[in-house]
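Hey, quick one: can you model this chain's 3D structure?
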Amino acid sequence: MKSLEEFPNRKQIVVIGGGFAGLSFAKRLLQNKFYEVTLIDKNNFNYFTPLLYQVATGFLEPSNISYPFRKIFRDSKVNFRIGEVTAVDTLRKVVHLGDDQISYDHLVFAAGAKANFFNNESVLANAISLKGMEDALFMRNELMRTMEKATTETDPRERLKLLTIVVAGGGPTGVEVAGMLAEMKKFIIKKDYPELAQANGRIYIVDGNSVLLAPMSEKTHQEAYDALYSLGVRIKLNTHVKSYENGVVTFSDGKVIEAGTLIWCAGVTAHIFKGIPQSSLGMGNRMHTDAFNKVIGLEDVFAIGDIAVQYTDSDYLRGHPQLAQPAIQQGKALARNLLRMAKGKEPIPFKYFDRGDMAIIGRNQAVADLFKNKFHLSGFLGLFSWLFIHLISLVNYNNKLKTLYSWIVAYLTKDQALRMIFFSKEKH
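Sure thing. Here's the predicted structure for all 428 residues.
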């Protein structure tokens, strides 16, 4: 880490979390004259969350969507520290990392969110979530292990159960996961696992709403439904997962499905940090901030991205969606405001500019609603838009080239080569 004594007059900013919001914030301060920035993250790399499911299903390598923080911040005014924050002391202005601590003048929370299991203990214990790189690698290993187990299973009912997957959540992640799994079932499993050619495993997607991709347009709702249905995905709407025990999924309507895998994409909740009072939290445990991303009730503490909620934007009175674009825009806005304040200028209230939402469903279909659903794209245009936006959003040119190559090979061959099970040695 660079010596802080080199910059005696600079105020110290500590950023917790290096996802979309934290990285966007830090990159705006790489060469600034007023602040020394230290970014803390439990990983030593940033990863592109929207493509985690492609790592989880073996279509991309982890390195395709990841890049080391220390390379991003090389030769800049931003330091990196690996670790997990255990508590904060907002009176002494100290962040605790286990037995160590870091002092700050300004603290920025950008730690994002985690899977919300809604206090359902059976789902928490047995389902697979998909919020981090470790989740993606665990899911990939579990899917491959289940396939291998199914090849040696002689009981047809047990084999069908092993090959049945339930995806809980009809948002973009759930729809994309279900579509990718259906593509694998259609084109890959029969080639790699000839023993399973007649096994007829099933893929379900279940959501409590009456439509898939609920925040998007009505046209998108129908197109997403039709695309998944054509891929053989069984769709259950207006239904919740009630429990998942002993390989049996029980739904809110009383029906049950025997399934070897439940993938949970049904909601998120913000990370909570010791030292932040309950009075500073809003809906979903998100830190309640003012229009300038300052946490209500705390001095020199800010929050951006999924961990923050603002009620000051007239177009989003219930807070901004927990998506990449609001996080990126809030990160940039807060960095600009801190620079403005350092120059004696007034900060500018945050206003979210909605560029739209999109989702890809299998190889050939993608849907996009741009600029608050004013423009709808599907088919080739939707697919091209999805590919282009996700490609240019990757951090580094190396990531872009590797990902583009992997996509081209997967599209042309209807295959991918990353179906290896990697074990990590556990230390006892």
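One thing worth noting: Residues 89 and 275 are 6 Å apart (CA to CA).
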